[in-house]
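Good morning,

Attaching, inline, the backbone tokens for the sequence recovery test we're adding to the shared suite. The designed sequence is right after.
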């Protein structure tokens, strides 16, 4: 029984170390939701006034006071914004997985040293 718990503990420690290594890669990320909005411009003769509107990308998020903030993402930065947003989602998933490992370690340590 103790050998099984030691094996589980070692497995969880290895998993934890791999997850922590992915957190420290220094990959850029942004929190928030990217959205595309169709807009009309100020040029009177533009096709957008006849129905073919211009797409624009924005990033929206909540600040620490829970106020909604948003910024316009220029066309030349949209690919980068999409990648950074994807990186954030991966980071969140990694943190969730790491938290699950820590929970398992807590339970396992409790089982190794049961209270009388």
């Amino acid at each position: 029984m103790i050998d099984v718990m030691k094996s589980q503990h070692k497995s969880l420690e290895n998993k934890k170390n791999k997850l922590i290594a992915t957190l420290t890669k220094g990959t850029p990320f942004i929190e928030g939701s990217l959205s595309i909005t169709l807009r009309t411009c100020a040029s009177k003769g533009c096709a957008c006034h006849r129905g073919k509107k211009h797409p624009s990308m924005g990033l929206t998020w909540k600040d620490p006071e829970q106020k909604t903030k948003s910024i316009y993402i220029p066309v030349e930065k949209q690919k980068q914004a999409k990648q950074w947003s994807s990186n954030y989602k991966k980071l969140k998933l990694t943190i969730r997985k790491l938290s699950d490992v820590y929970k398992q370690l807590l339970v396992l340590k409790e089982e190794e040293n049961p209270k009388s």
